[in-house]
Structure of ABC transporter permease:
Amino acid sequence: MSNLFDLLVAGLATGAIYALVAVGFTLLWQTSQTINFAQGEFVMLPAFLMLAAMHAGAPFWLAIILGILLSMILLGLGFKLLLVDPMMRHGVLPLAIATMALAIGIKEAVKQFFSAEASPFPSIVPTGDVSIFGHAVSLQSIGVLVVAILAVLGLTTLLNRTSLGHQMQAAAQNPTVARIIGVPVERMILLTFLINAFLVALASLLITPIYLAKFSSGEVLGQAAFIAAIVGGFNQVRGAIAGGLLIGVLDNLAAAYVSTQYRAAVPMIFLIAVILFRPQGLLGRAEERTV
């Protein structure tokens, strides 16, 4: 029973990170019809930017600030202006292919210019164990879960309870009408890309101390977050959050009770089942298509 409790807490912590990345997937799709297959590499890169800053002599806190700012410039502003905007005029599929190429490019660049070896990364949350209801639980898992939940609550508050959030939602739901009523649609779309860059940088800060800084780490994380976004409902932020938590718990339970070798297959099987029986996702809305 103790082992199951630990697995659930660790799974929720991992799932909270998946949720952050999945929310980014959802936001980009809602506002710009962008499916970013480089999202996993976007999570991997900020950790290496922070490590580079620390190797240059910056203290950890300054490296975090620099890493987040650089991520927002490169993975937010640069990604939109240099890749998404030029490719969008060619359609969704060419843009998706371009993000796949970007993922390969980022991975190879990190491998060549940073390191092909896994590197340790400092944790922003306490480590060790704490006793909860008689169970020894990792402080790191609790810290990761708390930080991720606070970030998600902050984002949902921004989207649902502020004028800026309402403008972002209007720009995502109907850009034409939003422009008519005075919403700066392009600015709102750019803000969404910047928010996604912040979310992936935060996810990088949370997950890298657990799994180390590796040039190949983005593949698994990106796949898990993409599955989470689809399972929860690709057109719903709350669906992405629920999907992330669910996939995180499933992943941990599969590793413990099925096999670490086949743990990746369990979320995939669950994804196929969801697509077959509820294509819009667990919390998604069915959308009619007109011809």
Notes: The domain at 2-277 is CATH 1.10.3470 (ABC transporter involved in vitamin B12 uptake, BtuC). The radius of gyration is 19 Å.
